[in-house]
From TrEMBL:
It comes from Fructilactobacillus cliffordii. This is Putative pre-16S rRNA nuclease. Residues 1-103 form the YqgF/RNase H-like domain. Belongs to the YqgF HJR family. One of its GO terms (molecular function) is nuclease activity. Its EC number is 3.1.-.-. It holds the Pfam family RuvX. NCBIfam families: RNAse_H_YqgF.
Length: 140
């Protein structure tokens, strides 16, 4: 069963997809969106769901460090509702505290990626970390 992981921001959505066995997450792409203009990139998300026969979508919840929910958590939950309604796939949520920080650290320390390039790939790597964390905890 393939699972899609999403890191939802206000301007981009990082996308990762698991292997068929649900062991590893691979970053796929970054979908441009614009929350202010009500452009959510759902057409591309739907294409990726169909192309990869995705059976479950996991969306990161950017909770505050004290475990409270702010406006980005609400936005991620709204995005999840749209995905569930439009594509009729189950949606689960995964705590994503510090995934973007971890993604940036990995890109700097392990891949020595320049600041400009990090900005272009960070959301995809964060989606990969969100999905891998879900896979590791749930042993899908």
């Amino acid at each position: 069963m393939k699972i899609m992981g999403l890191d939802v921001g206000s301007k981009t959505v990082g996308v990762a997809i698991s292997d068929a066995l649900g062991w590893t997450a691979q970053g796929v792409e970054i979908v441009a969106i614009d929350e202010d203009e009500k452009e959510f990139g759902l057409e591309r998300i739907g294409e990726l769901i169909a192309e990869n026969d995705v059976q479950l979508v996991v969306i990161g919840l950017p909770k505050n460090m004290n475990n409270t929910s702010g406006p980005r958590v609400k936005a991620s939950k709204r995005y999840g509702k749209m995905v569930r309604a439009k594509f009729h796939v189950p949606v689960e949520f995964e705590d994503e505290r510090l995934t973007t920080v971890e993604a940036e650290r990995m890109l700097i320390e392990k891949a020595d990626v320049s600041r400009a390039k990090r900005k272009r790939v960070i959301d995809k790597v964060a989606a990969e970390l969100i999905l891998q964390g879900y896979l590791d905890r749930n042993h899908v």
